[in-house]
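Progress narrative, Year 2. Work on Synaptonemal complex protein 3 from Anabarilius grahami advanced from sequence curation to structure prediction during this period.
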Amino acid sequence: MAASARKQNKKTKHTDSSTDLKAFDFNNLEEKKGSGSDDDTRDADISKAMQTKRKRLEVLTKNSLKGSTQKLEQMWKTQQNQRQKLTQDYSQQVLSVLQQWESDVQKSEEQEEKLNNLFRQQQKLFQQARVVQNQKMKTIKDLYEQFVKNMEEMEKSHESFLQGTQMELRKEMALLQKKIMMDTQQQEMATVRKSLQSMLF
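Result:
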């Protein structure tokens, strides 16, 4: 912007100087018949006008440069403030995301620790239940073996008891049969005797 202002100032200077030169030439053409003192006066007026215009151009150039510099500084400050604000907002967002991420990580670690503790407790309970189950199975097995053994012994005792009872019954039957035979024989003998006595007497 400063370079363009300088170029415009140079163009303005060149235009003004050429305009002044044309005016001067025109006056020279109209007043060629004038005296030499009038030429000197005109030269002095032209130089004063040129100096005045030069000063005016310098003032305008300085003012333009000053305004451009102020605008640039203001624009730079505005952009810097925008960059700082954007950086601050981004930093806050990133910090918030990082804090949330750390919180989530901590929560996940706590959950993982809780799950590990629960898993260890469940594993311990499962081991205890397995030990208890093995003990119960062993107790049931022992009871079953004892039951089978008792059944076998009871069957053996029943068989021996039946055998003894059968032997006793056989003995009693034999004795009873022998007694019955003896009684029958005695009755027959008595009947024979009576018949003989009746026949004899």
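The radius of gyration is 73 Å. Confidence is low (pLDDT under 50) at residues 1-35.
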